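BUG: 3D viewer hangs when loading the predicted structure for this chain

Environment: internal workstation, default settings.
Expected: structure renders.
Actual: progress bar stalls at 90%.

Input used:
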Amino acid sequence: MNFYTRKWVKPEDLNPNGTLFGGTLLRWIDEEAVIYAIVQLGNPKVVTKFISEINFVSSAKQGDILELGIEAIHFGTTSLTMRCEVRNKISRKTILSIEKLVFVNLGEDGNPIPHGKDSITYAYTGIEKTGRDN
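Structure tokens produced before the viewer hung:
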């Protein structure tokens, strides 16, 4: 599993109990996962389809530094399935785990289209080919 993204838990991220608000953590995960899917599938038109059971293992508090880990586990015809783990950077204690996050590759019309990928590539350049020099 690759742990590329780090987040610092700040006062505005806390719930009334003084720990990280779960919704904030889920927003961070969804954003990181869709970026990962966009890069893997080479298409900025990717949407979240499904998130499996979310297992909150331990809490995070103000000042903690968290690492978000994402791993591709299955390439479907139009989808990419990943798993996620969030851990405390210093203690390495798991904060949360999600076994399945599914993202779907969309065409210009907003409907699912095959992406043609079957393994991790990191090939997305972010530049659309238009057939002319830009």
